[in-house]
Amino acid sequence: MVSGSSVKVRRGRFPLLLPAAAAALAAALAAAAPTTLLAQGGTLRGTVRSAQSGEPIAGPVVTVVGLGRRVFGDSLGAFVVEAVPEGTWRVEVRRVGFRVRTVSAAVREGAETALDVRLDPSPITLAPLNAVARSPERERFEEAAQVSTRSLDVRDIRVTPGLAESDLLRTVQLLPGVVARNDYSVGLNVRGGDADQNLVLLDGQVVFNPFHLGGLVSTFADDAVQGLDFVAGGFPARYGGRLASVLDVAQRDGGSDGVHGSAAASLLSSKLALDGPLPGGAGTWLVAARRTYADGLVAALSSEEFPYHFQDLVGRITLPHVFGGVLSATGFASGDYFRLTLSEATTGQSEQDFRFDWGNGLAGLSYQRALGRSGTLTQRVGVSRFFADIDVEPGLFSFRNSVRRIGLSGDVEFRAGFHDLGAGYVLERHDITYRAGSPGVDVDFGTFRFRPTALEAYAEDQWRPVPWLLVRPGVRLTWVGSADFIAASPRFSAKAFLSGRTAVSVAAGRYHQYVQSLRDEEIPFTLFEFWVAADTAVPVAWADHAVVGLEHWVNDGLMVALEGYWKRMGDLADGNPADDPAVHGDEFRRARGRAWGLDLYVHKTTGPVTGWVAYTLGKVTRTAEGGDRFAPAQDRRHNLNVVATARGLLGAEWTVRLGYGSPLPYTAIAGEWIHRYYDPGRNAFVGASLEPYRTERNTERYPAYARVDLSARWTFQWLGARWHPSVQLLNATARTNTFVYFFDYARNPPLRRGLSQFPMLPTVGMEVNW
Amino acid sequence: MTGARFAAVAGLLLVAGCELEEIVVPLGRETVAVHAILTLDSAATTQYVVVERSITGTVEIPDEDSLRGFPRPPLPILGAAVVVTRDDSVALRFSESTVPGVYAIPPAAGAGFLAPGREYRLRVDLPDGRQVRGRTRMPAFPVVTGMPAEGADFDRDRDTLRLRWTGAEGTDQVFVQVRPRDLQRRLTLALFTDSSGITLPGNLPTPVLSDTLPPSVWVAGTYQSLTVAAMDTNFFDYVRTANDPFTGGGYLNHLEGAIGVFGAVAPVNRTVAVRGVVDHPHEGRYELRALLGADSLVGEVELFVTRERPEPVLVSGLVTAWYGPATSSARPSLNQVEASGLVREGRLGLRLVEGGAEERGVLEGAFNAAGATYGTVRGAGGAVVGSFVLTRLP
Question: Which of A18, A301, A339, B175 sits in a 20 to 30 Å window from B73, CA-based?
């Protein structure tokens, strides 16, 4: 991840790109600079690190002053200067984003002198041998043949208005290609895909259900996040397991210059983050927590109980000196907890409680080290888990859902000439269990279990045969044991530079997904996903992507990208409501779909006004197994989001978000029937309820959606800390956007009622950093 | 339920701020609804089929409670020809009953018609030419062990029923239900399971606090029916699925030309008299004497507290009573009389029901749990028809 104004070590995404550029530049410099022939001499060998974090700094420029020798360090900051004459030399070390440092080094004949150089961060300065510091998007434009990829850093997330506080997933919803179904869900429907088709990673580990409050907020605490990459389609061979997109969230490392912290409070939750160095400079640590406080507040002010709270906890430890590489550990836990007393204890009867808990957890280790001067090895191991437990105590009803993934993965990247080669593997096992029963009456309502093992391997090569062309073929092999499935998924992308600022890209590929969710996407809110895995009854879903794009950089801080996409999907698992419990194999039906459209993205990162414009013109269709073709709930023809940030009134940083979405489909209710309840003990229909029945599926459309949000964020110093009060106003124009309609045909005349999405919602918050 | 109150208030505030304006929409698209369940229960007095129109905005339904009880369709379809044909072509024609939209056959007419394993087809020809068709297969009775004898006692504080069954052919699911005999009381337990047994402890709670639902499945002082029924696939889908309000879909309908059900059940039914440990000052045995005009009612009430908190205290009682002319010593006994009522601020209100359906009167008076309670008896319509005395027995 490369932030906007400083350069930090990337972890595993495009580590070859910086040394590739550095190597090319070094070759040019070597040809241009004078050289001195030396019979022998000594060797200078060292590592350049950040004085603040202790992290290696990729691609430093190391000059032996007076000798006319200059070398570039590799992606882990290591450098070697050979054949240096004996004597004391001044060694100058540079890197954009850091202060230049000159150290003294004594070189002896035939010996090696070790240098450990620490650079202090500084504002960007242009060095003669370095390009202007590049945003991740600019770097990707120049160095990678990859389409549909957007990067956000924590600042983008923090300034974008959210529900009471900034929200990572709500910010991603504003990017091109993403449809947000409604204000109550942070689910992502990407280029016509379903919400379960997105691979969500936190430091390389899978997160299954990153939602709180039934999908209202995400589980990512932004004070621990460094940034994210979002790939909306055509992703390369190194990514697999999902059909629609990849959301790769990276946590930041702790600082090495003492303990720092931040605390924040909004109307929704309170947060605390701390980070600092490990003892002896062995590394850094970071821990961040978030929790709602309504229950505590109610308990403190009254004798009542508020039945719900959620909490998140993340942590990261980075050890940069482990066997020549960097070892990092990430932990994450999130949970929603709902408790309700259904009935109090009475004569002959104990108290009865309702409990509903759900949440995520993950723990992962990642190790990265250089392989020689041109390669990088990354190895990861991790466990991810989702759980949902419902209990009606004592023992009346119990529901358990557990999704667990254990994964081992690794990547090797190697630069050879004009080739950037990559290969890797993922070995993972899922254990998905659903169990419902009534312990009090010894009844098991059902148990379902899926335990697939999958092995995936990929290889890719990004090749620059000529300076104006990047070609990136790849292939990903997928084997799923439980489904007896094996397939090769070709991937291809290419970028042709029309100029130094304009390029045309194409990408295509086949994708597979063997863990899918059965949640009915037509229901407009998300509690959590119901994951099932491929086996003899559940298919492995597939998708084909094709993307064509044009990207133009007006200047280094303004880019415009236009992409057309086409997708088809098949073997999408759809629950079969008509399944016969006595028959195994009819639990699921297969659906297929198509999507096509155009994404326009304008991103401005410099100047007094920054932000982005994202517009999508899209169409999605689904075809159920019986041939019934319909528009799914995420079929939105026009989707526009404009986010603009500028410093303005009252000394605040103001952000305005304008959102527009054309109408989404829904199924109209045609009437209600009296669903009568039969008592076999009395041979009588003794009860009844009114139940709707529908017209054809999704043939009606809600009204168009529009919303304007405002946020203002101030900064001031006080008591040695930086304070950031903020104000947000969601739906500043108080527009009524329809959430759902309800029809009441038991009235004469019949009526349509409904619920709207967010009303005008003002919120305030405060953050302090020290 | 303080937490529930907060949750409800928070939800209401959210919804109140987010409700859309109510608008009038055109009338809906009518469909036909048919409910028909064939039962193998030999005690069933009839088999019947309900044929009605769906609700499309032409009538007002005040609330769902108004739909409870024996079907009285608000939009009945009259003049339909309802025929059930067995797989050997033997057919039974259902006749219109006194209730519009309800078609029935008396048991005599259907004697021997229903048998396990046989297939049955429903055909309803509507006066407008539309037709409804359905098909079902009658399951066999499950063989249940652990079932109490008819009329047996069940002590909810000490007893546990352990039921096991086999031979429930039809589906591999069985329907289990516990219900008060009194039609005015609500169902306390209903579930289906593919397990081969179920354990019903006496103190099994119901999960909802309600003014109308007791806190436990077994209610001391009542007669309760226990049913274990084999069911066909249609009945199984009919009880386990429903259309949701967001998509209008979800219910598995197996009828052609209508929505509803044509299913079959083979129930094993038992009625038990539920008692419990006497551990509350109100609980115990009382002698009841009531004068109702020229008649008198004499009996004994075993009174139990159903729910103590919150106020009022709910009570139920098993009544052994005889009813007849006050001047005669020979009074016939009443069949399975139950008392249900409450004690509020020292006043007792007790409703007597015979056979789960016939109300015999409502007793009202200042309650004296340790001695004698005097009061009035009200009949149907609320008029005072007599007086009573309820005396605590040692």
Answer: B175
Nearest residue in A to B192, CA atom = A445
DSSP run (H or E) holding A61? strand A61-64
Other Cβ atoms less than 10 A from the Cβ of A700: the count is 15
Q: Cβ–Cβ of B194/A446 closer than 8 Å?
A: yes
Partner A contacted by B195 (CB < 8 A): yes
The distance of A433 to chain B (nearest Cα, Å) reads: 18
- How far apart are alpha carbons A186 and A195 in whole angstroms? 10
pLDDT tens, position by position, A389-398? 999 887 888 9
Among partner residues A440, A580, A748, which is closest to B57 by beta-carbon distance?
Answer: A748
pLDDT at A60: 87
Query: Would you state the pLDDT for residue B331?
Result: 67
CB-facing half-sphere around the CA of A98: CA atoms within 13 A: 27
DSSP label at A440?
Answer: G
Neighbouring CB atoms inside 10 A of A626's CB total: 7
CA gap A297, A440 in Å, rounded: 35
Q: CB–CB of A34/A68 below 8 Å?
A: yes
The span from the CA of B360 to the CA of B145, in Å, is: 36
Encoding tokens for residue B333?
Answer: 């006994």
Task: Of A22-26, A227-231, A446-450, give the range with the top mean pLDDT.
Answer: A227-231
Q: Which residues of chain A are within 8 Å of residue B156 when distances are taken between CB atoms? A: 348
- pLDDT for position A581: 58
For residue A639, the cross-strand partners are: A616, A661
Residues contacting B21, CB < 8 A, separation 6+: none
Residues in chain A within 8 Å Cβ distance of B26: 750
Give the pLDDT confidence of A283-311 residue by residue, as tens digits.
Answer: 899 999 999 998 888 889 888 888 999 99
Contact A750 B25 (CB under 8 A): yes
Which residues 656-715 of A have a C-beta within 8 angstroms of B?
Answer: 667-695, 697
Which chain B residues have a beta carbon less than 8 Å from that of A442? 195, 197-199
Residue-level pLDDT at A488: 96
**Out of A350, A669, A680, closest to residue B248 by CB:** A669
The pTM of the full predicted model, rounded to 2 decimals, is 0.80
Per cent of chain A over pLDDT 90 is 53
Burial of A357 (0-12, 13-18, 19+ CB in 10 A): middle
The token pair that represents A328 in the structure block: 């990092």
Q: What is the pLDDT of residues A41-72, one digit of tens each?
A: 788 999 999 887 888 888 888 888 766 567 77
Sorting pLDDT into bands at 50, 70 and 90, what band is B306? confident
